[in-house]
Amino acid sequence: MKKMSKVLLLAAGLATTLLFSEPAGAQGKPNKLGWKLGAQAYTFNRFTLAQALDKMDSCGIHFVECYPGQTIGGGIEGKMDYNMDAAKRAQVKALLKEKNKELVAFGVVVPNTAEEWTAVFEFAKAMDIKVITSEPHTQDLDLVSSLCDKYKIKVAFHDHPRPSHYWHPDSVLNAIKGRSKYMGACADIGHWVRSGLDPVECLKKLNGHVFSLHFKDLNEKSPDAHDVIWGTGISNIPGVMAELKRQKFKGLFSTEYEHHWENSVPEVKASAAYWYEQVSKL
């Protein structure tokens, strides 16, 4: 109990310090590295997309990864869906512009037919989405490869924990071998930890094939682990970031905080500040 209290106090202290001490010049360093700090809207899945964008704003986060099924809100009827018509897409783009947010990625989405896959790529093209986050069925890999080449849009293979098909980096490498250069990995480092894997070693295996990340720090290495403020858990955030720099990674870090769902903003904000602090040291 005493040990747990010390951990909680450390986390609270780190959050307070980081919230008010973002390193000078930290905003410019990510641009030089080609890094974008964003948020997976799933972090705020108890809220509408419009509300989620406001919460991201309060955390100093500009880039967005949307997911299918979130209520849009902000006076716009319906949910985020790759089958939205042109008028609805225009409304969502206007909402993003109003909130000063840039939509970079969309997922996790798993189409079941060639028609659905084509619809996803058409949606991504219309919305200026750079990365489709997915866990494609193995029988669709050649189709996905051809669509990637046709649309020049990336598909990043996401790793839900074992026993999901892509839980291990080797399965991602096998899937993309000999296929489009626009096929790579969305590295969910938290799910790797839940699967008992070392995030740094996983990144090394995927060297050069990481397109984006779902960024997490967890309290323990187990399937039941939960998110904690970055830098206070066991995901070795500094080591992960150093490895990504070594690989000359350029792309999106999607904050995906899946804890304290109703009031995660303080922890997301503290995590973002920690990220900028670590970037400034690289």
UniProtKB/TrEMBL annotation:
Q: Does the keyword Isomerase apply?
A: yes
Q: Which UniProt keywords apply?
A: Isomerase, Signal
Q: What would you give as a GO molecular function for this chain, any one?
A: isomerase activity
Q: Which Gene3D superfamilies match?
A: Divalent-metal-dependent TIM barrel enzymes (3.20.20.150)
Q: Does the keyword Signal apply?
A: yes
Xylose isomerase-like TIM barrel domain location is 56-275
Where does the UniProt annotation place the signal sequence? 1-26
PANTHER family, alphabetically? Answer: HYDROXYPYRUVATE ISOMERASE (PTHR12110), INOSOSE DEHYDRATASE (PTHR12110:SF41)
Q: What is this protein called?
A: Sugar phosphate isomerase/epimerase
Which species is the source of this protein?
Answer: Chitinophaga defluvii
Source taxonomy: Bacteria, Pseudomonadati, Bacteroidota, Chitinophagia, Chitinophagales
